[in-house]
């Protein structure tokens, strides 16, 4: 396991440093994702163990909370309307993605809906197994969409001039005189993360640490920020984690669903852009913040993009937490309706895009 972890981080570091040092927005994250994903698809045993990932989540939460100041909380009055629009956008992404996968790729309703769901991969996969949907198709499309968003969205934003590489302003250097503040920050944030995790709060490790860190920094009690080398290491490690999702996935299987993945990505991004432009015009919110807050990618990756692009983590975090709850609340309803949809589509004998080999292989 340690050997596989070391190899994974080596690939991630090489990719992250390459794009990061070139100045690409969120390059440390996206470079690591691409390098590890390519290595995984080439057959290398890419692996990030669970305990290591949990430590990363806490460090990410601390880093995000350290950005919070009274200024970042300014404008919270605009959050309710923005969050309400987000819920509508999530529903639109789900419906439009389902229609696209059914009409263009011939998927059945349940499989298409689960593949188009805006996040919550673990919950989505649990429902897929329960109602006998095409599990591998859903997993591949959901995973590829996460990777495509994390890698492509910063580049697209930079191309249109709405994102810049700004992480360095959010981090500092380690000074021994600050050791007491570091100790308090890590102890309180880790305890909050653990309690949130025990209470089964969605994204508890990340959001628990972020809330505690934000409270300490926002109150002015703590002023220390994460050393730059820790922040960039966390980005590279998280990019490696995302890329390692392709471990043990045959390249042939990925190619089978690549059209569905890019198509559903295009549909979701188009919807996000429409709603983002509406909010930018009505509320005057920064375009980059709205796009990252509304992007249907993995929460940890989207929060890292907020950090890398120097965005307001409170605004972005509130919206992604809402998106998690949207998925959690709609999935049980789908579970009850899924079998009826499955039977109806089976009677119609709609062709479903299947892998070229059996699940037993």
Structure report:
- The protein is mostly helical and 361 residues long.
- It has a single domain (2-348), classed as Na+/H+ antiporter like fold.
- It is built from 14 helices and no strands.
- The protein starts with a helix and ends in a 13-residue tail after the last helix.
- The model is unreliable at 354-361 (pLDDT under 50).
Largest sheet: none
User: Which CATH architecture?
Assistant: Up-down Bundle
Low-confidence runs of at least 5 consecutive residues: 354-361
* Average pLDDT metric: 82
* Overall shape: globular
Task: Find the count of extended strands (DSSP E, 2+ residues).
Answer: 0
Total count of helical runs of at least 4 residues: 14
Q: Give the termini distance in whole angstroms.
A: 24 Å
Helix percent band: over 70%
Tally of discrete structural domains: 1
What structural category arises from helix and sheet content? mainly alpha
Q: Radius of gyration over alpha carbons?
A: 20 Å
Estimate the strand proportion: under 5%
Look up the CATH topology: Na+/H+ antiporter like fold
- The CATH class, by name, is Mainly Alpha
**Topology pattern, helix = H, strand = E:** HHHHHHHHHHHHHH
Labels describing this entry:
disordered C terminus; 14 helices; Na+/H+ antiporter like fold; 361 residues
Task: Lay out the secondary structure.
Layout: H1 2-21, H2 27-41, H3 50-65, H4 79-105, H5 109-116, H6 121-130, H7 135-159, H8 179-198, H9 204-218, H10 228-243, H11 251-283, H12 287-294, H13 299-308, H14 313-348
């Amino acid at each position: 396991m340690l050997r596989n972890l070391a190899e994974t981080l080596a690939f991630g570091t090489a990719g992250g440093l390459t794009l990061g040092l070139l100045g690409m927005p969120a390059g440390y994250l996206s470079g690591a994702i691409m390098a590890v994903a390519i290595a995984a698809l080439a057959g290398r045993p890419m692996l990030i163990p669970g305990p290591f990932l949990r430590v990363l989540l806490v460090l990410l939460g601390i880093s995000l909370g350290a950005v919070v100041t009274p200024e970042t909380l300014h404008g919270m009055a605009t959050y309710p309307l923005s969050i309400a629009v987000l819920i509508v956008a999530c529903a639109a992404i789900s419906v439009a993605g389902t229609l696209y996968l059914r009409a263009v790729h011939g998927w059945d309703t349940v499989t298409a809906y689960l593949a188009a769901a805006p996040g919550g991969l673990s919950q989505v996969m649990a429902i897929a197994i329960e109602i006998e949907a095409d599990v591998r198709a859903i997993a591949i499309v959901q995973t590829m969409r996460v990777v495509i968003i994390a890698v492509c969205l910063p580049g697209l934003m930079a191309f249109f001039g709405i994102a810049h590489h700004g992480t360095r302003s959010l981090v500092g250097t380690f000074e021994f005189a600050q050791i007491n503040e570091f100790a308090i920050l890590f102890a309180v944030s880790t305890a909050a993360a653990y309690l949130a995790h025990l209470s089964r709060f969605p994204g508890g490790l990340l959001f628990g640490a972020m809330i505690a860190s934000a409270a300490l920094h926002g109150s002015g009690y703590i002023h220390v920020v994460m050393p730059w080398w820790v922040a960039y290491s966390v980005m590279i490690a998280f990019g490696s984690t995302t890329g390692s999702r392709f471990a043990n996935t045959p390249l042939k299987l990925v190619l089978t669903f690549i059209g569905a993945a890019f198509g559903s990505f295009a549909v979701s991004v188009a919807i996000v852009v429409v709603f983002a432009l509406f909010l930018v015009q009505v509320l005057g919110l920064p375009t980059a913040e709205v796009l990252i807050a509304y992007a249907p990618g993995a929460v940890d990756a989207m929060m890292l993009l907020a950090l890398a692009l120097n965005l307001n983590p409170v605004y972005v975090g509130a919206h992604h937490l809402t998106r998690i709850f949207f998925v959690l609340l709609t999935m049980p309803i789908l579970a009850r309706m899924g079998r009826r949809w499955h039977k109806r589509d089976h009677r119609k004998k709609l062709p479903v895009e299947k892998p070229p080999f059996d699940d037993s292989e």
